[in-house]
Amino acid sequence: GEDRRLGLPERLRLAAHALEPHAPTKELSSATSLVERGSHGASHGAGAGAAGVLDADGQELLEARADAARGFDEEEAKLTGMLKLLRKRVKDLQADLAERQPSFADRIRQLAEMNSTVVVAERAGARDDQMMTSLKKKCDLMADASEKLGKLRLQASDLI
Q1: 13 lies in a domain?
Q2: d(CA 146, CA 1)
Q3: Residue 44 in domain
Q4: Distance, CA of 99 to CA of 107 (rounded, Å)
Q5: Are 69 and 24 in contact (CB under 8 A)?
Q6: Mean pLDDT, to the nearest integer, of 143-159?
Q7: Distance (Å, rounded) from C-alpha 39 to C-alpha 54?
Q8: Residue 132 is assigned to a structural domain of this protein
Q9: Residue ranges making up the domain that contains 9
Q10: In this structure, is residue 104 part of a structural domain?
């Protein structure tokens, strides 16, 4: 019924007007008084049918504004509740982080110590590899020298 009497642009304008943040109570009371005056004045004259339609339209307008305001208030309450939940969740997460911060710091310190131990072990391994190479060369040199010394002694003993 209401949709047929008001065109879509008119309904949209009324809905948008109902959501505007300016003082709706003053406008509602003035709209109500206009509707009341129209219905009282028209009931005495020939336009009683028009006044009834005007009165019904005014009532529907007031109901539509009230519904829009209720819908807005419900949505606002829902969003406010969600915002409170999210703020509580953030607060809980911050408290949890603050509580775990010392253990995180200890773990980071342990990891740094392990990394330095690995670096020291790698350096020691590289140094040991260099020493092994050097000692192997020295052993090879000593073995060659010992072999040559043995040959020279044999030659010297043959000469005597």
Answers
A1: yes
A2: 121
A3: yes
A4: 14
A5: yes
A6: 90
A7: 8
A8: no
A9: 2-97
A10: no
Close Cβ partners of 62 (under 8 Å, ≥ 6 residues apart): 28, 31, 32
**Burial (Cβ within 10 Å: 0-12, 13-18, ≥19) of residue 91:** exposed
pLDDT in tens, 68-81: 888 899 999 999 99
Distance from C-alpha of 51 to C-alpha of 43, rounded to nearest angstrom? 7
Query: Based on C-alpha coordinates, what's the Rg of the chain?
Result: 49
- What is the model's pLDDT at position 20? 59
Residue 92 sits at the vertex; the CA angle it makes with 90 and 94, to the nearest 5 degrees, is 70
Mean pLDDT to the nearest integer, 18-38:
50
DSSP letter at 22 equals S
DSSP state of 46: T
22 phi, psi to nearest 5 deg: -75, 165
Q: Which tokens hold the place of 115?
A: 């990394």
Task: Say what the pLDDT of residue 27 is.
Answer: 47
Q: Is the pLDDT of residue 131 over 60?
A: yes
Give how many domains the chain has, as a whole number.
1
